């Protein structure tokens, strides 16, 4: 197209390669990966963070509604904890009640990127969240609810927010509403954005520039890269990586998986997914939390007498670097370490991931693609073998030689307390992961996942986290 | 890729061209377009269809629930008519109550295609629906709710259904869940499918083979191609059409719009759409229909004293060619002829369509892309100019020389009685449709729309109908 036309190519053909270049780059122009843990520790020590469990009665401006028993903030903003009545037509549990977080407003999770020394770098933040086991983790440039950025809590302004709210301040590379945990949130979604700037930006002290490859390396460390960063990174439309430069055959197969053919063409994948959405039926009705069957409200928690799943608790928070320095809030505290695993298989040299169509009660559209295995094993201890989550025992008993990736990561620390999972990528014997998998499972390439995450409600937050980890394994591939 | 690999290319690169070939073909191998109206009339006359309005008290197996006042079938299947309480933050109407159809189950709208004489033909059905003004219209091969095809009404089997339910009976060309009217349905979606077969199929007498181009020609006729056919046709991934063979410059610009560049790259379109979804807030709570404010239940209808919007009525139906030959059911009857219009503009020779991000109360995801104008003008008569729908007066007063397409089409005749709209494509003076449109509007190409309809909840049913009409204008372009 000539210079004088108003028209643009529909896609930026250079972008996937530029992002791939950042992914393979493990030497940052600003900070080395080796120096990063020290930098994060210095931030942790420089601030006096403190999180204490408190009784619900000590929550400030949060209270149980006298009629419904729902837990809400007296501004009507932030979120509420309500009841949900769920019925499904499949699985060992066909009907249950549970508390759920209702957060109607859409927040922004945004990463600002900038080319430094010819390589795209991400502006990442050391951010405290009360629910994280180690409090401070690496988060996106901006991580803000609408209540945050419209200043309901009258705190400090959100830094760099203007790049995400004002079209034209930068070039948008990705911008998609993505769901979050359907087991704990009712129809929650956040805007996942990546915006490239050319402006000179002097990072505030809590921020640092890292390449995608450096963040990929950090994803191997436990509890360093937070969930919000992982989900945004998964949405980057990263292009081809040269498999000939991979350090081992698995990584070469992973590199090929970004842009090769697939066991199933895209239209078959979409058709299978559509059939799963039409087939799996979940009815979720919001109900008052007062008198919720199987749940008991105590002074410090709302929990089940059998101590399964999770409980609702309250904390008080003191923080030096957040918009307001002291607050109280409810959190959901899952009980037990989760397992979040991709089973993979090389098919004609191209890595494929076994995705599961998961119906979660809080999803907007009932079904999304999740990891092969996603559960807290302890919640399923008393089930007969045929009702246990498919492939769970395979993951729990996996030979270490089949583990290609393993790290413990936390879920959203602003809503969940110590919600940690072991994120794993495994490559079992081919006998154990057949080409024709059980109903509800489907083999896809990493390239196919990358296409799907451009759109809402296809890939759930746990699978996006694992996709970020998979991508991160390509760091240093040259 | 070699013959021995398990891998497939992610996309079938020949398919878009084959569909484009069917679109430009106006000579069918089986029936000429000229003969079609006579064929449809003969079917109309051969059957004794009859639809009569009845009081709610004469509905068979349908009744108002004694507590909620909701209207439901005693099988618990099909659909219910319930109440909805809607609040929004924008527009002249910020809060209202209305009846709404709740139909949780996902149906199938499927078109079977087959290459005949080297050109893809669609197997279309002459189907009676009680709400259509002329009862019999051209419909997809299969148009069935789950209650239909699981035989809740104990009627005859749905012909050709097996091609859509059994993977492998044909090659899936498109398969996507699409929303339907958000003003009248609560979170309704249907599976829109196109499946290609190689089997020899002897069409039953109510079915005929037509090219996409023939159906395109029929879309110029009032009330011939039903809504279900239009929405499925819109999902066909049709490829490039040669603009040099177009019969006029508008059609040439339309042909270019299928695969040229665009005013906005795709990522800008997605980013604008994401921002609109995050910005526009609609809260819709299901409430009992009993005592619904502003609505009165009489013996024959539920309506508003001001006679606006729609009413709920009941009919008895006698039909010779449906799965069961006699039944009663409720219908929603909109009041007044709607206007459904695309405003278009050639930008550097490429046709662009002005889409509106519309929040409709019944949408699953709050906002979808709709036509530039979509309303029943009479519902807005008493509004001050600033509150009238944008561009409505431009459409109503359009110079006939700017009208590129015009036909009256009906909405789903199985749920709506005489729900008809004037579907229009206009090309006003460029002054009236600026490149930088008002908030909530965005210029897109037909190629961009075609990419979006591969995925759920982007393009609403009225815009999909108009997209089918636009595509149909390319019929005969060679």
UniProtKB/TrEMBL annotation, chains A, B:
Give the molecular function GO annotations.
Answer: lyase activity
Q: Which InterPro entries match?
A: EvaA-like, EvaA-like_sf
A Pfam family found in this protein is: Hexose_dehydrat
The dTDP-4-dehydro-6-deoxy-alpha-D-glucopyranose 2,3-dehydratase domain extends over 34-235, 267-470
| Protein name, UniProt field | Oxidase EvaA
